[in-house]
Fold this sequence. Notes:
By secondary structure, this protein is mostly beta strands. The chain is about 0% helix and about 55% strand. The strands form four sheets. Strands 1-2-3-4 form a four-stranded antiparallel sheet, with no helix packed on it. The protein has a four-stranded antiparallel sheet with strand order 5-6-7-8, with no helix packed on it.
Amino acid sequence: HEESVTGVAFSPGGEWLASCSEDGSVVVIETFSGRVAQRFEGHAGASLAVAFSPDARYLVSGGRDRRIKVWDLEAGQGRFDLATHHTERIVALDWARDGMHLVSASGDGSVAVWSATDGSMSSSMHGHRGAVHDVVFSHDSRALFTAGEDRTVRMWSADTGKGLRVF
């Protein structure tokens, strides 16, 4: 990377490490050798978050440009590019355990669930006062948990976007 590294993620099996940077690049490194296996460009501005699909065939990145990019690691190219409804940067991403959905969290306080096959939005969540700093699917992928600037952790239905609990 030519600027600060802003995020990292291990592939489920640990064989790959992905990193993203203020320079907008996304790099995939072979963990054992340290060799750069792939480098992706495409964000207008910083790329801020990365996550591997459960089968490690795809990588998703999000950035200051409010876009989500899904990269096909086998083909070495972009699979699709989402222009999101988020009005600020994408700060966190996660992939459902079945590989069928992605979730994004934004500095604008919103969270969205996306189809990993066609990029359509399936649900949207609003409730934090301020930025959402992190998001993760539950192990069964039926719920989402978000961490916010408002000092709360919230639990949401991944299917409907309905708020289930505030911690």
